[in-house]
Amino acid sequence: MIEVERLTKHYGSFVALDDVTFSVPKGEILAFLGPNGAGKSTTMKILTGYISPNAGRATIGGLDVVEHSVQIRHRIGYLPETTPLYYDMQVDEFLRFVARLRGLSRAERGGRLGWVAEICHLEGFWKKPIGVLSRGQKQRVGFAQAILHDPDVLILDEPTAGLDPNQILDVRGLIRQFAESKTIILSTHILQEVEALCDHVIVIHEGRIVADDRRDALSGLHGGLEQAFHALTQGGT
Ligand code: ADP
């Protein structure tokens, strides 16, 4: 479903991504695990068409993310690290606005809005301005905008960052629910997140992939994913 081949991104002379290759089959949840600054967001921004790579290519469902960026945007839902919300709008107004932007017809809009309200549990604050919501509630609205057009692929940048433990469970529940029908890439620097959710993990450090395997295989390294992660990101094995 997602193929990434020798992707490289420079910011000026700084190499943020260096020759990154991986693939994600349909229906899988892949975690990008790595410390801050590893290159996780950069990879996600390239996949979603927000920035272009300097070298290499990425395809989603066979379409090149640079050449077919508009079609790709219809097929993916993206939750960036900082949720893109308009704080003065009410939740229902914001989602109606996003639905129009995504090109949903009037008939489709009603059904889709009802669906995201239910699935993301938005009913309790549907008419509230986004600015007054808790961080967990805002994240659920962010999730709702990402799935509103029923994309095949979800790209979630640190979806549980800054949430309290109950909110984390809530958002993980949402991700699991979608895993049944979608291909998902999420980034995290939290090992438990990988253990709780993912089939496949790529450990990324200073712009390079230092491990790429099934979660179970990596967990076997040195008796645990945590030790493996620290060993790999310190340059040892
Ligand atoms: P992560 O998501 O793993 O925390 P990022 O992909 O955001 O990492 O960043 C990778 C590296 O690229 C970091 O060192 C970051 O400072 C740098 N970087 C990211 N965006 C820019 C930018 N627009 N200009 C310059 N450097 C950037």
Radius of gyration from CA coordinates = 18 Å
Total beta strand runs = 10
The stretches of 5 or more residues where confidence is low (pLDDT under 50) are none
The secondary structure category is alpha/beta
Helix content: 25-40%
**H/E element order:** EEEHEEHEHHHEHEHEEHH
- The separation of the N and C termini measures 30 Å
Bound molecules: adenosine-5'-diphosphate
Task: Using the alpha-carbon principal axes, give the shape.
Answer: globular
Brief overview:
This protein is of the alpha/beta class and 237 residues long. It is 38% helix and 26% strand.
Word description of this protein:
There is one protein chain. With 237 residues, this protein is an alpha/beta fold. The protein has helices at 40-47, 69-75, 91-101, 106-119, 135-147, 165-179, 191-197, 215-220, 225-233; strands at residues 2-11, 14-24, 29-33, 55-60, 63-64, 76-79, 153-157, 183-188, 200-205, 208-214. The strands form two sheets. The protein has a six-stranded mixed sheet with strand order 6-7-8-3-9-10, sandwiched between helices. The protein has a four-stranded antiparallel sheet with strand order 2-1-4-5, covered by helices on one side. A hairpin with a 2-residue loop joins β1 (2-11) and β2. α3 (91-101) packs across α4 (106-119). The two termini are 30 Å apart. It binds adenosine-5'-diphosphate (ADP). Adenosine-5'-diphosphate is lined by residues 11, 14, 16, 34, 36-42.
